[in-house]
Amino acid sequence: MNYTVNKDTLIGEIINTDPNTATFFLDMGMRCLGCPSSTGESLEQACKVHGVPVQELISTLNNHFESYSTK
Questions:
Q1: At what angle do helices 43-50 and 54-69 cross, to 10 degrees?
Q2: Is the per-residue pLDDT at 1 higher than 80?
Q3: DSSP conformational letter for 21
Q4: Which range of residues forms the domain containing residue 44?
Q5: Residue 25 domain-assigned (yes or no)
Q6: Alpha-carbon span 66 to 59, nearest angstrom
Q7: Number of domains in the chain
């Protein structure tokens, strides 16, 4: 899967692309993934609210998506 996220990527878009990524959001304390407002947030917005370094989550997600490309 050739998919890359950045700080402006919407959470809903990421989860729709791969529902398995929900785990990364749950791990950072984002428990309201079903809420329409949470899925409309950007990575940067969500990270600010939950005190997570945005670049760290971007790297984690992009590594996850890259792992599909190498299979």
A1: 130
A2: no
A3: G
A4: 11-69
A5: yes
A6: 10
A7: 1
Burial (0-12, 13-18, 19+ Cβ within 10 Å), 24:
middle
pLDDT in tens, 55-65: 999 999 999 99
Can you give the pTM of this predicted structure? 0.86
* Rounded Cα gap, residues 8 and 42, in angstroms: 5
21 near 41, Cβ under 8 Å?
no
For the chain, what percent of residues have pLDDT higher than 70? 94
Whole-angstrom Cα distance, residue 45 to residue 40?
10
Asked if residues 41 and 10 have their Cβ atoms less than 8 Å apart, the reply is yes
